């Protein structure tokens, strides 16, 4: 019987992630891994960002889903280059899947790549994809206790994006509580409050992402 230890698989992932990171850096592409639960508003956030970027950046997306191409179709409608990965049941993307998707993108034609990970607050945290930044999207209908309950994903993120802020007041979600919990886990992390469907808070995120792209 052959037993492959999880640690070895993660090491193999890290090697592929390092290759992805080097490839993206050589092409001058900044890369953001977008994490969060199913339905948190990840794709809607990307749609709002792309509408607000205008001609200031050349974005692209890798969509990670267990099945189907619905999110990729949404991104394609905006004229943004997109590659859909179907994990066929796996609850997270890994660096090998992203390496394959990178082969389908013209890296010379883009400068800001978003990877929308499979909706999941647990497994996605453990897999480096070769990104420069991680953001975790948490909506105001999911409960403000999630940073305490799922610390790994928040700890490893560069920003917390609280979405669906237009619904604040309709739930008991306290953004100050989750922001404080996040800052304990990621003291240097940024916190954004947005309404992706209203556009509220999107300009601050756009400026932050453009500055990161400039630093590339
Ligand atoms: N009211 C409101 N609804 C939102 C917002 N962002 C996303 N939604 C809705 O939440 C649902 C899930 O959004 P989606 O972007 O597909 O979530 P994803 O699974 O994380 O990619 C959709 O019905 C969106 O219209 C928001 O800022 N405000
Ligand atoms: Mg989505």
Structure overview:
- The protein is an alpha/beta fold.
- The chain has one domain (6-214): Rossmann fold (3-Layer(aba) Sandwich), CATH 3.40.50.
- It has eight helices and seven strands.
- The protein has helices spanning 6-26, 42-53, 70-76, 95-102, 146-149, 151-155, 175-185, 202-214, and strands at 30-36, 59-65, 82-86, 112-116, 133-139, 159-163, 190-193.
- A seven-stranded parallel β-sheet has the order 3-2-4-1-5-6-7, sandwiched between helices.
- Strand 2, helix 3 (70-76) and strand 3 (82-86) form a beta-alpha-beta unit.
- The protein is globular and about 50 Å long.
- The N and C termini lie far apart (46 Å).
- The protein binds guanosine-5'-diphosphate (GDP) and magnesium ion.
- Magnesium ion binds at residues 42-43, 71, 116.
CATH architecture: 3-Layer(aba) Sandwich
Order of secondary-structure elements: HEHEHEHEEHHEHEH
Rg from Cα: 17 Å
- Kindly provide the name of the CATH class: Alpha Beta
Largest sheet: 7 strands, parallel
- Unreliable stretches (pLDDT < 50, length at least 5) are none
Number of domains: 1
Quick one: overall form? globular
Bound molecules: guanosine-5'-diphosphate, magnesium ion
The proportion of residues in beta strands is 15-25%
Count helical runs: 8
* Span of the ends, CA to CA: 46 Å
The CATH homologous superfamily is termed P-loop containing nucleotide triphosphate hydrolases
Helix content: 25-40%
Strand order of the largest sheet: 3-2-4-1-5-6-7
The name of the CATH topology is Rossmann fold
Instruction: Summarize model confidence as the mean pLDDT.
Output: 96
Number of strands: 7
Instruction: Find the structural class using helix and strand composition.
Output: alpha/beta
């Amino acid at each position: 019987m052959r037993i492959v230890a999880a640690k070895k698989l993660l090491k193999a992932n890290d090697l592929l992630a390092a290759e992805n990171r080097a490839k993206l850096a050589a092409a001058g592409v900044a890369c953001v891994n977008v994490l969060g639960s199913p339905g948190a508003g990840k794709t809607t956030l990307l749609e709002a960002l792309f509408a607000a970027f205008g001609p200031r950046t050349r974005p692209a997306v890798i969509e990670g889903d267990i099945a189907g191409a619905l999110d990729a179709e949404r991104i394609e409608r905006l004229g943004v280059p997109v590659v859909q990965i179907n994990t066929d049941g796996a609850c997270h993307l890994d660096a090998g899947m992203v390496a394959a998707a990178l082969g389908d993108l013209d890296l010379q034609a883009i400068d800001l790549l978003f990877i929308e990970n499979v909706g999941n607050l647990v497994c996605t945290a453990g897999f480096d994809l070769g990104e420069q930044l991680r953001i975790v999207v948490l909506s105001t209908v999911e409960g403000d206790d999630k940073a305490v309950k799922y610390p790994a994903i928040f700890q490893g993120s560069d920003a917390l994006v609280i979405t669906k802020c237009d619904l604040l007041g309709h739930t008991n979600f306290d953004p100050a509580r989750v922001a404080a919990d996040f800052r304990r886990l990621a003291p240097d992390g940024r916190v954004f409050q947005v309404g992706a469907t209203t556009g509220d808070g999107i300009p601050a995120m756009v400026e932050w992402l453009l500055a990161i792209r400039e630093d590339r």
